[in-house]
């Protein structure tokens, strides 16, 4: 006969087995996380360490007890502990408290599996993000690491330009709304309905952790929006996230109608209920899962498509930027020779004055472009969004018949080549002025590559495309021209190589490939021209050396001062000039991987204490190009 105590023990064991079994099923039924970063270089903790104890306690109990009632959780272990752990959890702003608590509790399990023993980690699920660290993370904007995913569907080729324009317009609006959301919630959703520009409704979402300032939230969202052209170009859907912010878009409605405000209003009661369950279940489950090294998850993806939402008022942007052809013709005196400022590969440039007295520069594009009117307009609207002090501002455009005009701000001091290659004017450019120009070009290029809402590779950077304003600040012009007119390009490859002799990177000339570091190559050529006062294709001495060959030879022989413009050799900061020569040579290295990014270049230029690597040989192929008939 079984005693009552034995029966009770058996019942308890049976209940425990059932509970563990149910919890285990619950664990393995969870959808797989989207992405994670484990930061092994930030240090590891051991199994019996205080850090692990603090982390277990924080993630299983303390964090989920310290929410703001609106899907944001932040906590840390004991203040007096040297092994202090900090954690943040964030749920998507349209998710109810029960779903939020479930997502975060599952994330504590997943992060233990995905990043065992790491002191710093972050993990994203479909509707929440969880991170922890050995340093304070609340209130600090983290623009990286970044993760992204894309949908399998592609935008039709005829819709790509319009889709990108409408998408960026939508995300810019949501970015502002999310950043201005206040201290409790920084979250915005919206859509742009299908119209005569796009054939499908686009839905978007923007969110930051609410501990960020409005400025930091805005900067974080701008930063990841800059990755959209690289990760998600031509895709119907995509999402990007960092530990501090996230963006998402798709052509189906992936968010709930319930707004953040509604979730806030009903949050307290539901959150208490979810928290009670979590505090009971999670500690035991979390402790058990720490010993599990594998997991089985099913990737869940919501499907469906709804055509709902507001009318797209972004079309008005085109009207605001479109100039009347008759007005431009009057402003330029009927495109007279007296008003012509110059010419380039895409057309002639004229000075004009509008009726309000504003001076403008008008590029009259050649009429043999195969670009469709709608595609032209959409791409121009994208480029018009690029705003930086070191870029020439595009004011608008004009389309009438075969006429296609681009209207820019007027920059009074013309182009850089008219100064550095002129034996008289070059004397007006002392080293301080030239250094300011070099840094300005670098900052403008960095903006195009990394900080703008688009990712622009210039592909035709040269001295004649660097304009100087009244204060001799450098302004890059013709950015976006390659994007606008190289219609046969596909993901960094083109069958039509266009550019200027001497500036084109070898991978572009030889194979038609172009990268952001192809622009870095052009920048290096510019730096050497600005320092030497000589054109890249200038022949030197009896050996018919071009500037790159001459600069490299003198660098290797320890006579790099020979490169310097004679007008700079007295009274200038020779150490700074020599450093810039080295940076220029680093930018023009033959191997793409060895060239620095523009972010690194700016750091080199502005941090004199930073040691520089030794450059390797640049591509000395000028004569070969001349023989092969490559022209600019």
Automatic annotation (TrEMBL):
Listed Pfam families: PK_Tyr_Ser-Thr, Stress-antifung
Transmembrane segments: 276-296
Example of a GO MF term: protein serine/threonine kinase activity
Signal peptide limits: 1-29
Subcellular location: Membrane
Domain Gnk2-homologous: 33-137, 143-254
Binding site for ATP: 363
Residue ranges of domain Protein kinase in the record: 335-610
Protein name per its UniProtKB record: Uncharacterized protein
Annotated organism of origin: Prunus armeniaca (Apricot)
């Amino acid at each position: 006969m079984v005693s009552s105590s034995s029966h009770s023990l058996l019942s308890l064991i049976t209940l425990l087995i059932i509970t563990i079994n149910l919890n285990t099923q619950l664990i393995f039924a969870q959808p797989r996380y989207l992405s994670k970063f484990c930061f092994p270089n930030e240090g590891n903790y051991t199994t019996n360490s205080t850090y692990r104890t603090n982390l277990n306690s924080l993630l299983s109990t303390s964090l989920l007890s310290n929410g703001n009632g609106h899907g944001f959780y932040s906590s840390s272990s004991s203040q007096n502990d040297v092994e202090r752990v900090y954690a943040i959890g964030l749920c998507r702003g349209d998710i109810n408290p029960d779903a939020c608590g479930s997502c975060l509790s599952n994330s504590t399990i997943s992060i233990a599996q995905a990043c065992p023993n790491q002191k710093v980690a972050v993990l994203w699920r479909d509707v929440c993000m969880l991170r922890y660290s050995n340093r304070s993370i609340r209130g600090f904007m983290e623009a990286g690491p970044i993760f992204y995913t894309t949908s399998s569907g592609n935008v039709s080729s005829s819709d790509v330009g319009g889709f990108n324009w409408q998408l960026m317009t939508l995300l810019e609006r949501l970015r502002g709304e999310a950043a201005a959301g206040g201290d409790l919630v920084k979250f915005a959703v919206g859509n742009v309905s299908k119209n005569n520009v796009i054939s499908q409704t686009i839905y978007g979402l923007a969110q930051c952790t609410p501990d960020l300032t409005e400025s930091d939230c805005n900067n974080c969202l701008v930063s990841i929006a800059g990755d959209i052209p690289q990760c998600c170009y031509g895709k119907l859907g995509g999402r990007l996230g960092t530990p501090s912010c996230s963006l998402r878009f798709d052509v189906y409605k992936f968010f709930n109608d319930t707004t953040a405000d509604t979730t806030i209003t009903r949050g307290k009661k539901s959150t208490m209920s979810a928290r009670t369950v979590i505090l009971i279940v999670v500690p035991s489950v979390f402790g058990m899962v720490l010993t599990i090294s594998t997991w089985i998850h099913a990737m869940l993806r919501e499907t469906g498509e709804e055509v709902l939402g507001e009318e797209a008022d972004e079309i008005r942007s085109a009207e605001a930027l479109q100039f009347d052809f008759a007005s431009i013709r009057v402003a330029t005196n009927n495109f007279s020779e007296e008003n012509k400022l110059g010419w380039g590969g895409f057309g002639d440039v004229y000075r004009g004055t509008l009726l309000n007295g504003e001076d403008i520069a008008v590029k009259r594009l050649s009429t043999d472009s195969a670009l469709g009117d709608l595609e032209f307009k959409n791409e121009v609207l994208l480029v018009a969004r690029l705003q930086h002090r070191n870029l020439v501002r595009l004011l608008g455009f004009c389309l009438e018949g075969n006429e296609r005009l681009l209207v820019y701000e007027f920059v009074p001091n013309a182009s850089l080549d008219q100064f550095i290659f002129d034996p008289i004017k070059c004397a007006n450019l002392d080293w301080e002025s030239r250094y300011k120009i070099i840094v300005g070009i670098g900052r403008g290029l960095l903006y195009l590559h990394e900080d703008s809402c688009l990712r622009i590779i210039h592909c035709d950077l040269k001295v004649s495309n660097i304009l100087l304003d009244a204060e001799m600040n450098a302004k890059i012009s013709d950015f976006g021209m390659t994007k606008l007119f190289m219609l046969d390009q596909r993901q960094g490859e083109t069958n039509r190589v266009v550019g200027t002799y001497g500036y084109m990177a070898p991978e572009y000339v030889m194979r038609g490939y172009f990268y952001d570091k192809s622009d870095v190559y052009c920048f290096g050529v510019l730096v050497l021209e600005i320092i030497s006062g000589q054109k890249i294709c200038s022949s030197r001495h009896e050996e018919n050396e071009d500037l790159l060959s001459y600069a490299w030879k003198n660098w290797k022989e320890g006579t790099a001062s020979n490169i310097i413009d004679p007008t700079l050799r007295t009274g200038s900061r020779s150490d700074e000039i020599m450093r810039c020569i080295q940076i220029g040579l680093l930018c023009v290295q033959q191997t793409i991987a060895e060239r620095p990014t523009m972010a690194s270049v700016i750091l080199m230029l502005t941090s004199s204490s930073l040691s520089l690597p030794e450059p390797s040989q640049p591509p000395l192929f000028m004569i070969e190009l001349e023989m092969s008939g490559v022209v600019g």
